[in-house]
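User: Could you write out the 3D structure of this protein bound to glycine? I've included everything you need below.
Assistant: Certainly. Input first, then the structure.
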Amino acid sequence: MTTKREFLKISLVGATALSSVGALSTALAEDKSVNHVNETIDNKQTDIVQKPVVVSTWEHGLSANRAAWQVLSVGGKAIDAVEHGVKVPEADPSVMTVGYGGYPDREGKVTLDACIMDENQNCGSVAFLQHIKHPISVARLVMDKTPHVMLVGEGALEFAKSQGFKEENLLTNKAKAAWQDWLKESTYNPVINVENHDTIGMLALDKYGDLSGACTTSGAAFKMSGRVGDSPLIGAGLYVDNDIGAATATGMGELMIKTVGCHLVVEMMRQGLSPEQACIAAVERIAQKLGDYKKFQVGFLALNKSGEYGSYCIQSGFNYAVTDKSGEKLLDAKSILS
Ligand code: GLY
């Protein structure tokens, strides 16, 4: 039971976090291109737990959520739901930012990053993995079968093969053509919301009240060989704390790495912020710390222990999919810039 002293402490921590969101908003409000963040805060809090529920980034999240819902709706665990769910865009060549059919690096190689985290703080991750269509399932096996959290490159590939995964060519003709077109100029100016960090990050709360998350991507199109983004980095592209909530991210991974963005979102929820407020606080941290943030897109998506969700991003255009007992929907995230 919470004592009066503990309650006061929790309230004060929450108030501090809220006022820091407001203070930074004031500073950013002097910039005409920045939305008035306080107006966007959704401060709903409820004691009613909405479960199960699954949320994921971008429109491709709708089909991914459907696969996750097949697991959640029959009493399956969140960790199995998120793995099952993100495998859909991983296998879909029309999604050119995740798995098979993803844009290659500037050497023409498709290199994949993924991580997964469960309700017991277990996590697994792979980075710079080539030739394997489902990096999320390799990450799951790193979590379940090794004493480690992260395997990269050749080591990750050898591990995958040892677990029965087969090597495949992941470079489709369409992605190859896009790369050959890019080679003509060879300039690295990623087009916001298009070219293309639209990772799938998925968070689920199951009927038992447990949270898990998964994140998987082919990373930045035409990146330098060896570049690893935020998506396989626990704390940057994904974080789960089963006492509090979970967060995932999409967009220019370097910005999430520099701010350990998803860990920040979860810690903000711990201090009493709603999922949307916590995402706002993380985007504002990026805006405050990283002067060139307006050139990039970053979107955070969060889900708390009560099944409440929220999102926020730098540029308009980021959306996310939500699936629960009432059905599925695609929502536009609010943004710091119009
Ligand atoms: N957010 C995906 C990446 O930057 O690689």
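The pocket of glycine is lined by residues 197, 199, 217, 219-220, 229-231, 250-253 (CB under 6 Å).
User: Perfect, thank you.
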